[in-house]
Specification:
Layout lengths: L3 H10 L11 H10 L5 E5 L5 H8 L3 E6 L2 H14 L3 E5 L12 E7 L1 H7 L3 H11 E13 L10 E2 L1 H8 L3 E10 L11 E9 L2
Helix pairs in contact: 3-4, 5-6
């Protein structure tokens, strides 16, 4: 994955156009629609912890992992202020530490598309496969190649998504959505919202 110092510098400088100040609307929508019940969950590339803390507030047992020490420090502060327990780890998502028992739910808001851009898409899916428990459910949000926006997130085609994920996961639902407005500008890039189930 990209150098950890690069991502840490972005958090230090406030160059974080993926931050919205609130948990993902698409995450909230999906959990409500699919009636996903509280379980052991991981936020992959959790950043400053907004989604992980929200999941913990819903009763999930949450682990968050990110390569940026600054982001993880902010995430721990956010969890403390919210009065919830989340286990946060500073680590490269492609080389995670021992995180204990498998996870029944995982959330990825933008890690996969960055790792894929760097040439490690299939390796990343392999890591998620190892972390996920039998029949685990996951929600993956990525940039959508049908609308290339500059600046904006890395983009992925439907065919690329299916090719990378289908070996280990059943794609339950794939739909287009728009990312929430961020704290830096008014853009709302087109994305893919992909709900998957572990085949194991």
């Amino acid at each position: 994955m990209a150098d950890g110092q690069h991502w840490d510098n972005r958090y230090r400088q406030g160059n974080t156009p993926w931050e919205t100040g609130h948990p993902s609307t698409e995450l909230q929508r999906t959990l409500a629609e699919e009636k996903i019940q509280p379980c052991r969950a991981i936020d992959l590339g959790c950043g400053s912890g907004r989604h992980a803390v929200w999941l913990a507030q819903q009763g999930f047992e949450v682990v968050g992992i990110d390569i940026s020490p600054t982001a993880i420090e902010r995430a721990r502060q956010l969890a403390s202020a919210a009065g919830v327990q989340v286990d946060f780890f500073v680590a490269d998502i492609l080389h995670p530490p021992d995180l204990g028992q498998p996870f029944d739910f995982f959330f990825d808001r933008g890690s996969y598309h960055v790792v894929r851009r760097d040439g490690f898409g299939k390796e990343y899916v392999g890591i998620v496969h190892k972390l996920a428990g039998p029949k685990a459910t996951g929600l993956v949000l990525t940039g959508n190649a049908r609308e290339k926006s500059e600046p904006g997130p890395p983009v992925v085609t439907e065919e690329e998504l299916r090719a990378d994920w289908s070996n280990h996961f059943e794609i339950i639902r794939l739909r287009e959505f728009r990312f929430d407005k961020n704290l830096m500008d008014d853009s709302r890039p087109l994305g893919w919202s992909m709900l998957v189930r572990h085949r194991q």
